[in-house]
Structure formats: structure tokens, C-alpha cells
Amino acid sequence: MKSTRALYINIHKLLIIPIVLGLMSLYDNFSIEAYIYLALHGTYSLLWFLKFYWFRDEGFRVQIPVLKGVFSIFLVMTGYYVAPFILISQQVKASPMFISVVLFFYIIGIFFHFVSDIQKYYTLKYKKGLITEGMFSRTRNPNYFGEIIMYLSLALFSKHWLPFVIIVSFTVFVFLKIMKQKDAFLSQFPEFEAYKKRSWLLFPKFF
């Protein structure tokens, strides 16, 4: 029995808001910090579904076995629930300056993640091939760069080391593997070597 890869990711995104609200109710924590976290992570999940509806990545249509989807995607992604659990259960408090830093990195991450995905979708829709302009001019994976920055901002909000370990692990064992596979695919294009020299795999190469 198989289902699309998107199913397990979408279930995870769908659960973000009810889980955070459930944690707030369970720990009787309706602080400004808890509501800000709800707004940040909840907004991301809503934007995810808008992206899925308007400019869906073709990779999400891939069919995979149900058990593989449950164990290698959904259960792995539950690690993203650790940050809100810590923040809410431990009644984490944050100064206005600290919150502004969290918001700064969150907004940067959201921008890179969604804007680059939009550029990729519409560029490939009308012109197949290597994308080397705009947000892809200095990094070959601006979407993953943005997503990682966004999740790091939520980890920062928790003021705990564990969410950082989870995100770094996810980056090394999941995102990095996907990015290397993408590089291997793009190497078929003759202009890839020149593009590779002026861009980095993940972080933007500004100099």
C-alpha cells in the first residue's frame, strides 16, 4: 500500500496549531511568549498549505510505502514539536529584545523559503533547465536555507539546546542528502560547473 510523500508532511503541518493550543491548555500557559510561538509556527503551517495548493513541488507527488512514510517522514518530523513543548511546559520568558531577534530570523527564513519556491515553480513552468538567477544566483538551495533559518529561530525561542540538536541532525541527515542528490541531477547541464563555482550548496555566497 502506497500514498504520496506529501500526505505525511501535510499531516504534520496540520497538527501544528492544535498541538500548540493543546500544550497551552495542558500547561495553563497563555503567556505572550506562547501566543507569539503559536502565531509564528501556526502561520508557517498555513503558508505551507497555500504553497501546496498554488505552487506544489512535483516531488510531493512521489508514491512511497505507508510504513516508510510514517516512520521516515512523519515520526521524524515530530521532532519539530519539541521546541513548543519546552517553551510552553517550562514557561519560558523572553525580553522584547530577544523576541525581536527571534522575529528577525524567522522573517528572513520565511522570505527565503517561500519566495525561492515560488521562483522555482514559475521558472520551471515556463522554462525547463538550470535556475541560476534571482534567489538561486548565490545559493543552490535558498528554500532549504530559509526553512532551516526559520526553524532555528523557533529553536532559539525555546532557549534550550535540544531543538538545535534536532534541527542540525535533520539538516545533516535529511536536507543535505536531498541537496547532494539535486546537485548530482543538475550536473547534467553544461553550465552547472560555472554555476557551482559562484554559489554555495546552502548558504548564499555573497563574496
Automatic annotation (TrEMBL):
KW Manganese (keyword) present: no
Q: What is this protein called?
A: Methyltransferase family protein
The record ties this protein, via PROSITE patterns, to: S5A_REDUCTASE
State the top-level EC class. transferase
A GO BP term here is: methylation
Q: Name one GO molecular function term.
A: protein C-terminal S-isoprenylcysteine carboxyl O-methyltransferase activity
Q: Does the keyword Transmembrane helix apply?
A: yes
Residue intervals passing through the bilayer: 6-27, 34-54, 66-88, 95-115, 160-179
E.C. number: 2.1.1.100, 2.1.1.334
Domain of life, source organism: Bacteria
Kindly give the InterPro entries that the UniProt entry links to this protein. Answer: UstE-like (IPR010721)
What organism does this protein naturally occur in?
Answer: Aquimarina rubra
Give a single Pfam family match.
DUF1295
The entry's keywords? Membrane, Methyltransferase, Transferase, Transmembrane, Transmembrane helix
